[in-house]
Amino acid sequence: MDLVVCGEFFWDLIFYELPRAPKLGEEVKTQHFAEYPGGGLATTALVAAGLGTSTAVVTRVGHDAPRNPGWQKLIGSGIFTGACEFSHLPTAMTVCVAYDGDRMLITHDRINRNLHTLLKRTTIRQQFQSARHLHLACGLSPLHPWISPIRELRSRGITISLDLGWNPEVLRSPQLPSLLHQCDFVFPNELEARTMTGEKSVEQAAKKLSQWIRLPVIKLGCNGSVAFQDKRLLAVNSIPVRVLDATGAGDAFNGGFLHGYLSGWSIADCLRSGNICGAMATTRPGGSAARIARGKLLKLMKRI
User: Fold this and answer.
1) Is 75 within a domain?
2) How far is the C-alpha of 272 from the C-alpha of 114, rounded, in Å?
3) Which candidate, 54, 52, 57, 53, places its Cα nearest to that of 42?
C-alpha cells in the first residue's frame, strides 16, 4: 500500500438542514438525515482511495463492525482493513448536527483509548514494511507514548503526516515540537495552527511551524490553504461551493493532498487537490459523501 492511515474510526449519524439551532430542553425536527463512515481515518482514506491511491487503514473497531454499513463501505472501496484490531467495546459513534455552515458533535469513543498500542502489534508493523506514507488521523493524546513508535517508523524511510484536530491539550503541549520533528507534514486549520504556535497570524504561525516540521500546511476553509516552503508562504485558493455540512472537510483535504503527494505532484498542485476535495466534501452531509474521481479533480484543478 502507498498510504496507511492510522487513527479513529467513527460511524456518523448526521442531521442537517435544520430550521434552527437546537437548544437544551427542546426538540428540533428535520427531514434530512444521513449515515456515513466518519472521522479523520475514514474520510482521508476514502478520498485518497477514490482518487486511485492504494490505501490501508489501521484502527480499532468493535465486533459489531462486520454489521456496520460504514465499515463495509471502507472494505467495498478497496481499502485494506486486514491489520485492524477488533475489541469487545462498541465501535465509536458520533452524532453530528449541521446548521448554518457549521456543526456540533457528540461522540462515544471509549474504544479509541490508547491507540498508540496498535503501532506495536506485529501484524501492523508488517503492514508498514511496504508502505510509502503514514498519516495519523487522531488527537495523539496523551502525546508522549506516540513519539517513540513514530520515530522508529520514520527511521525505516516512511514519510509521516498528522492531523491532530482540535485537541487544545495536545496542541499546547511542550512535547509537540519533538513529535513534529519526526514528521514531514502537519495539517492544522487556522485556529489549530495559532494555538500550536502562539502566533496571531497565519503567516507567522506557518513560519514558526516550519522550524519544527519540513512542510506545515494550514487549511483556511473557503479561503483555500497555505504551505510554508523554501522560506516563503505559498497560498492557493479554493473553488466556490454551496456549503451543506462542513463535517470532515479538513480530512477530505488531507486525502486530496496526500494523493497528490504520492503521485509526485508539486506542493502547489497538492494544495489545489486538497482544496477541491475539502470544498466538495462540504456539499454533501458527511465528509466522505461527496468524493470525486481523479479525472474530475484534474479538471477542477485547472480552475485554480
Assistant:
1) no
2) 34
3) 57
3-state helix, strand, coil in the chain (%, to 5): 40, 25, 40
Side chain identity, residue 117: T
Q: How many domains does the chain have?
A: 1
Can the peptide bond before residue 142 be classed as cis, meaning omega within 30 degrees of 0? yes
3-class SS of residue 137 = strand
Does residue 34 lie in a domain region? no
Contact 229, 22 (CB under 8 A): no
Question: Is 197 a member of any domain?
Answer: yes
Q: Cα–Cα distances in Å, from 25 out to 21, 22, 96, 201? A: 12, 9, 18, 39
For the domain that residue 282 is a member of, what is the CATH number? Answer: 3.40.1190.20
Place of cell 500550536: 196
Its pTM stands at 0.91
Q: What is the pLDDT of residue 287?
A: 66
| Residue in 232, 228, 224, 239 with CA at minimum distance from that of residue 280 | 239
Q: Is the model's pLDDT at 291 over the cut of 80?
A: no
Beta bridge partners, 37, equal 11
Domain holding 173, by residue range, is 3-7+46-55+115-301
**In contact, 33 and 286? CB cutoff 8 Å:** no
* 92 within 8 A of 10, measured Cβ to Cβ: yes
